[in-house]
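QA checklist item 7 of 12: single-chain prediction sanity check.
[x] sequence parsed
[x] length recorded as 77
[x] structure emitted
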Amino acid sequence: MSLVDRIPTLSDEEVVNLLANAQRLAETGDDKQKAAAADLLPALETEAAARKDARLERAKAKRAATRKATVKAKAAA
């Protein structure tokens, strides 16, 4: 199983860490490291963005639920 295939199974922290490392190696690595980083970067960037969007949506839903409960509590008081 290649590293690209394993990306969906990684934790959010692992994806962000791997993305940072790939970006660093794309800039400062040797030719082999730059090639490997170039292969990984598109998949890592896509996965990191999707996970960030999902986190933002969960936070938005949580804020809306909290707001709704607060308004309901104030109305009941």
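[x] summary fact logged: The helical segments are 3-6, 12-28, 31-76.
[ ] second reviewer sign-off
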